[in-house]
Design goal:
3 helices; ribonucleoprotein; ribosomal protein
């Protein structure tokens, strides 16, 4: 059985609240889980102690059993010092999309035409 340590969403619309759970990876996000390991409340300030609460003993147990944490849970565990920090690099984050690149090329072409038009009468 492939185990995951992940978030299960609760709370009402636009008021998210998450349980950190150990669950079979084939179960739905908010579906059946094996054990509740903690909570995460993203509405609280980042420096609040109640924002992320984890039962580290049980988390360590599941990690020893081979459970894989989700990306968000692994960040919580890195902050708590349980996991080693991973190097994350999203190199494409700053690159504009195709349409934005096309608009930039069109704008550059228009500017070049305008510069040529302005320079041509001055030379005559």
């Amino acid at each position: 059985m492939a185990m995951k340590i992940r978030l299960a969403r609760g709370g009402s619309k636009k008021r998210p609240f998450y349980r950190v759970v150990a669950a079979d990876s084939r179960m739905p996000r908010d579906g059946r889980f094996i054990e509740k390991l903690g909570t995460y409340n993203p509405l609280l300030p980042k420096d609040s102690e109640d924002r992320v609460k984890l039962d580290m003993e049980r988390v360590q147990h599941w990690l020893d059993q081979g459970a894989q944490p989700s990306d968000r849970v692994s960040r919580f565990l890195e902050a708590a010092g349980v996991l080693a920090k991973k190097e994350r690099n999203n190199a494409k984050k700053a690159v504009p999309g195709k349409k934005a690149q096309e608009r930039a090329e069109e704008k550059a072409a228009k500017a070049a035409e305008a510069a040529e038009a302005a320079a041509a009468p001055a030379e005559e």
